[in-house]
Amino acid sequence: MARSEIYLDHAATTPVHPEVMPRMLPYFGYHYGNPHSIHGLGKRARIALERARAQVAGLIGASSHEIIFTSGGTEADNLAIQGVARGLSHKGRHIITSSVEHHAVLNTCAFLETSGFEVSYLGVDGQGRVDPAAVERAIRGDTILISVMHANNEVGTIEPIEEIGRIARRRGVLLHTDAVQSAGKIPIDVESLQVDLLSLAAHKLYGPKGVGALYVRSGVKLAPLVFGGGHEQGLRAGTENICAIVGFGQACTVAGRDLQRNLLHVKDLRDTLESMILERIPGAVVNGSRETRLPHVLSVTFEGLEAESIVVGLDAAGIYASAGAACTSASVTASHVLTAMGIPEHQAFGTLRLSLGFENTAEEMMHTVEVLEATVSGLRAFYDGAPEAQGVFLFPQDHQASTAAALLKGQGMAAILAATPGHLRSNGISLHCLLVGISEKEPAAEALRAAGIEIDSVHEIRGINRPLLGKTMLDKAQTFWDHLGPHGKDKDA
Ligand SMILES: Cc1ncc(COP(=O)(O)O)c(C=O)c1O
Question: 1-5, 181-185, 408-412: which has the minimum mean pLDDT?
């Protein structure tokens, strides 16, 4: 990453650790054997595979034979839930989960509901916490699985898995936890958590993408999802991705070794960032538990704004963060996690997630707050002062939108960067757009053409100014884009 860039999206993915990649490279090259071949080359790969398995097990206090490699967190969640459902359907068809799970869990449960399983979705409190007593109340004679995440990916709240584990154990029900966000960030021990199944993904802990694991407690029986040559104890057929698995193993060792130091460093940075935001940006509200929260996650709401436009503003300054809203190519919907926590939709739309990593610095936090403050006040001033209608400019490339905004501001025009509505997106990728007051649409177009900035298209939009918040604003914008038809250009094309 270029020096001037600040990466604050570690909950989405992390860079590969500098101590990880060199370990992987030989397995792309001369250690190319199939780990299941009996000759020397195969044996070398087999040794690497088993070493990585021990490294992954070591991070969570498990035994090597309890680790099944998968293609990532999503597959681990699927294997756990579908594996138990299909393996134990003769005992019962009821599953308990929470309403704040990742879609890898929620959509797997929804799928099972279409094939005769019943799922209880437990609510959470204002901090996003599942009540263990509610879990106990939901257990029935035919309950075969409880799946509650270890820590939430949007707000960072850590769930009371130990307590739920005790209940599950006492009632004889299997417990799965999705630890994709917490592994390598806070200590995990499968014995003290009393879980039977636990999902991991390498790319959230400085390992490569496309590899993960499911911890399966010794003696727990699952039905496989993928059938074939009996690899991974018959639970996940297919020749293992040795390069990625070697990287995953090394990432786990490094994460375990540096855990305490990184935890304190990242928490310190996050707490500083949080207090600077609350001090300097009026109306900012922090979401999630203050006591039991992942050290690196900060979810903050700026009511009345659309977080995606804040993301675009930060992006233009080389700062990378996430919006709390889940955007698909067809629509923009408020985050299911925030709404389950009782946060109203219009506030959920204004929610930004900043997630830190050990490589972030105090200087980066200071700079981020300055840019965030300017972005939020710029957006607020624009919407407060903007007339009923705005001119919307789309550009072939995102960087042209920032150049255009700077040029127009230099000429005294009120112009802001914003995100295009989900509807317009190709493959879910947001384009940056530029908004100006309607009376400035023509002069702005003139000025941009005169400066040689290529404009993709110019539109008008009505009614997204001051009195409209959140959903209403997006609905209005959506109606406009619906009339426009598909944009058809991918920003990366
Ligand atoms: C809590 C949680 N579970 C599962 C996943 C899916 O992991 P993967 O991207 O490795 O499939 C994610 C990824 O964002 C996550 O945050």
Answer: 1-5
